[in-house]
């Protein structure tokens, strides 16, 4: 069963998440001399990344960034300096503000003309980066995720063929409702994580959170349900508004 922490607002979600992520990273460095962290995109994690990098808070100095290896759960089919780039958002809010060796920052090359090439390239980058971090089991210590109103995680959208991908670790998929390609880690890559932390805030996420945690199994409709096999390795940190539908009648 997943662990759910409800914070008052999206601001407190970021504060609770900053403490939890920092503690998980510190624990991994103590246990394995490094920490492999897969970052989420979208808007929700920006506040968390900003807190982790802000030297007015304890977390930036608690984390030995020289031992952290950063990966991405997904990327838009855009260059890193594009306003929609997940790497670009994390670079501005976190990566450019902490002393992490750039050789330990493994971004998805969203600028590649063919998104499928970017996926193939990242399959190798991910493998080599995790080996460089000492993870022969190709595991993340922490995988951060958000959730879309439609229940997508990373760039695994409802009805996507990536939902059933069980061998490749990175895939490119055309997203019809966005009329865009996305590059995403697949379920086996995302689930190979010691800890998965999902952030959600806002009333518009309440239905997806309920579907992910309570509704009957239908991952093709609700991809976030792909996290269920990870049980208590999954921790949801959500605000009161996003938790609103959890108290509803059982499914
Ligand atoms: C992305 C993310 C995606 C995101 C959700 C929630 O590339 O957009 O990886 O999975 O986490 O869409 O996005 P918000 O945090 O912006 O609501």
Could you give the order of the helices and strands? EHEHHEEHHEEEHEHE
Class based on secondary structure composition and strand pairing? alpha/beta
Ligands (ions, cofactors included): 6-phosphogluconic acid
DSSP summary: helix tally? 7
The backbone outline, from C-alpha atoms, is globular
> Averaged pLDDT, please?
97
Q: What is the distance, rounded to the nearest whole angstrom, between the alpha carbons of the first and last residues?
A: 16 Å
Low-confidence sequence ranges? none
Explain how this protein is built.
The protein has helices at residues 10-32, 45-53, 59-62, 86-93, 115-132, 187-191, 206-213; strands spanning 3-7, 35-39, 68-72, 74-76, 140-145, 170-175, 180-185, 193-200, 234-239. A hairpin with a 4-residue loop joins strand 6 (170-175) and strand 7 (180-185). The protein has a six-stranded parallel β-sheet with strand order 1-9-8-5-2-3, sandwiched between helices. A three-stranded antiparallel β-sheet has the order 4-7-6. The model has no long low-confidence stretch (mean pLDDT 97). It has 251 residues and is an alpha/beta fold. It is globular, with a radius of gyration of 17 Å. The protein contains seven helices and nine strands, in the order βαβααββααβββαβαβ. The chain binds 6-phosphogluconic acid. Residues 40-44, 73-74, 86, 146-148, 152-155 line the site of 6-phosphogluconic acid (6PG).
Q: What keywords describe this structure?
A:
six-stranded parallel β-sheet; binds 6-phosphogluconic acid; globular; 251 residues; three-stranded antiparallel β-sheet; alpha/beta
